[in-house]
Design a protein that fits this description.
Blueprint lengths: L2 H28 L13 E8 L10 E7 L5 E11 L5 H7 L12 E5 L2 E3 L2 E12 L3 E11 L2 E15 L7 E12 L3 E20 L4 E19 L4 E6 L3 E8 L7 E6 L2 E8 L8 H4 L5 E3 L6 E5 L7 E4 L9 E3 L4 E3 L6 E7 L3 E7 L2
Parallel strand pairs: 2-10
Antiparallel strand pairs: 1-3, 1-15, 3-4, 4-6, 5-6, 6-7, 7-8, 9-10, 10-11, 11-12, 11-13, 13-14, 14-15, 16-17, 17-20, 18-21, 19-20, 21-22
């Protein structure tokens, strides 16, 4: 073979290998890694839209995909408000903010959640506690009124929602458990089996924004057990298997899209909304108007703002509350609200927090 042909072939081989290596490096650079900086933090308001199903198929998986859900239609809004652990009830802080006795359970924040009934058990004023480390994002436990009595309940083992950092094709399995004594009744326990599979990466297009994401498939199997002491027996309540498809993005501290399925049917589509002007509870105190008294158990007067054309009041789930407001005197009646923290928004963009007491 002529020497010049050998030279051409060697150059071609080098170019070919260079192109392969470049393509591989470009593919790697396009993938993202989700770490602790992408997990929720305390004192934030994460605003969401709950959307119509629109025939969405959440099961697609693979690399360098594009999920175009820009046509999602919002049905209603809600919010997750992460409340600093130092604001939790004192009895809950004994477990979830006690580095001396319960160092592994010191939490960053809690989320308020809806209560429920289970057999002879009533769960009210539910607060779920969370923390993030460099290795995991986990639920440490919860606090609630159990048949009217306050109780902090720690998970042992804790419910590891995500092992961190996360990359494409990662797969993890975690088991969590809790048991709570119910005075005068017996005890309530729950087994939680959680499998996470990172099944895709690519570009996610939503009505408000476009993100570079990892897609995680979470399979949840849970069984509640209730033991009635005076009867000497208990009952198990296996819950239907839940599969959540979740997209997590660079630069965000919450899932940007979650599609929940139960028994193979889509039951909820929830995506992060960019419509909320203020996202940090700390920013609320810098809003240029005043509400007094705050906390209040009756009426609230407003000052520092010339004209109020629209006043809205939301709870920490993002639900709009019904309140009476006198536009002439700039006075709001909060006597119909339950004790707790609320968000007041004026003229669509001025926001401040309000605490209602008994």
């Amino acid at each position: 073979m002529p020497s010049y042909l050998c030279c051409v072939m060697k150059i071609s081989q080098k170019v070919f290998l260079f192109l392969i290596a470049t393509s591989y490096l470009n593919l790697l650079s396009a993938q993202i890694t989700i770490s602790e900086v992408n997990m929720p933090v305390a004192n934030m308001i994460y605003s969401y839209e709950n959307a119509l199903d629109n025939g969405i198929d959440p099961s697609s998986e693979g690399s360098d995909l594009e999920w175009d859900y820009s046509d999602l239609t919002g049905l209603n809004s809600d919010a997750d408000t992460t409340i600093d652990i130092n604001e939790a009830e004192s009895i809950f802080q004994l477990v979830f903010n006690n580095p001396v006795l319960f160092g592994d359970y010191v939490s960053d924040y809690y989320l308020s959640a809806q209560g429920f009934d289970l057999g002879g058990l009533t769960v009210e004023d539910l607060s779920n506690f969370y923390r993030t480390t460099s290795n995991s994002f986990e639920q440490t436990g919860f606090g609630a009124l159990l048949n009217g009595l306050p109780a902090p309940v720690a998970f042992n083992p804790k419910d590891v929602i995500y092992e961190l950092p996360m990359n494409y094709e990662d797969s993890t399995f975690n088991y969590a458990f809790f048991e709570a004594d119910i005075p005068g009744l017996g005890y309530w326990s729950e087994d939680i089996f959680r499998t996470n599979e990172v099944i895709g990466w690519g570009t996610l297009i939503l009505p408000d924004a476009t993100y570079e994401t990892l897609k995680v498939k979470t399979t949840l199997n849970r069984t509640d057990s209730l033991f009635i002491e005076f009867l000497g027996f208990g009952s198990n309540f296996p819950l239907p298997e839940v599969i959540e498809y979740k997209w997590l993005a660079e630069g965000e501290m919450s899932e940007v899209l979650t599609v929940t399925t139960i028994l193979g049917q889509v039951t909820n589509v929830r995506y992060l909304s960019n419509s909320m002007v203020v996202s940090s509870i700390d920013e609320l105190d810098r809003t240029p108007f005043n509400m007094f008294p705050n906390p209040s158990n009756g009426s609230v007067d407003f000052s520092g703002i010339q004209e109020i054309e629209l006043l809205e009041c939301f709870d920490l789930y993002g639900r709009r509350m019904t309140v009476q407001f006198d536009f002439n005197s700039k006075r709001m009646d909060v006597s119909s609200l339950n004790p707790g923290r609320y968000i007041v928004r004026i003229n669509g963009n001025l926001v401040q927090s309000l605490i209602v007491i008994q």
